[in-house]
Design brief:
- This protein is of the alpha/beta class and 168 residues long.
- It has a single domain, classed as HUPs (Rossmann fold, 3-Layer(aba) Sandwich).
- Helices cover 40% and strands 23% of the residues.
- A 5-stranded parallel β-sheet has the order 3-2-1-4-5, sandwiched between helices.
- Helix 2 links the parallel strand 2 and strand 3.
- Helix 1 runs parallel beside helix 2 and helix 3 runs parallel beside helix 5.
- The longest helix has 27 residues.
- The termini are far apart.
């Protein structure tokens, strides 16, 4: 077969791991939906890590600042509320994922601590290709007072960061 050129199609699927930071906000669910629509393809072995960061657990004392005693029932109720919140957010995120037409492996990842530190360390640990986050759209002064988790992550992770802003 001299002079004939054969083209080989690369049928090997590209492996893709994307971390999406989710929380109770509409902005994070919008970012997840945007990610599914824009960053996944049929030629990918898609892995999506849904990352929820719980605030660090408070240090409980049996006596609060006003001198009242906390019962173990109150502490257990507060911990159950935190677990229920995680389940609720993850269920909402999974519902968004189910609407996608792509075959996606979804991992639920729950961390505890300062959001910016947990997000950065999780992205590194999972060797993510991309980090996707929603933007709350805070103005200059609010961002200066509260800090910006997305800004911190964009400066400190080694992979590309996509910050998705929801139209108002």
């Amino acid at each position: 077969m001299e002079g004939e050129t054969r083209m080989m199609m690369n049928t090997k699927k590209e492996k893709r791991r994307i971390v999406v930071a989710v929380d109770e906000s509409e902005e994070s669910m919008y970012a997840l939906s945007w990610c599914l629509s824009n960053l996944f393809s049929t030629n990918s072995d898609n892995t999506l890590a849904l990352l929820y960061v719980k605030p660090p657990p408070p240090v409980y004392s049996t006596i609060d600042a006003a001198g009242y005693m906390f019962s173990s029932d109150v502490i257990a109720a507060m911990e159950k509320y935190g677990s229920d919140l995680v389940d609720s957010v993850m269920e909402r995120a999974l519902a968004v994922c189910r609407k996608s037409s792509y075959n996606i492996n979804v991992e639920r990842v729950v961390g505890s601590g300062d959001a910016k530190d947990v997000i950065c360390s999780t992205v590194k640990k999972l060797k993510a290709e991309t980090l996707v986050m929603g933007s709350h759209g805070y103005g200059f002064f609010k961002r200066a007072l509260l800090g910006s988790v997305s800004n911190y992550c964009a400066k400190n992770v080694k992979c590309p960061v996509v910050i998705v802003k929801k139209d108002k």
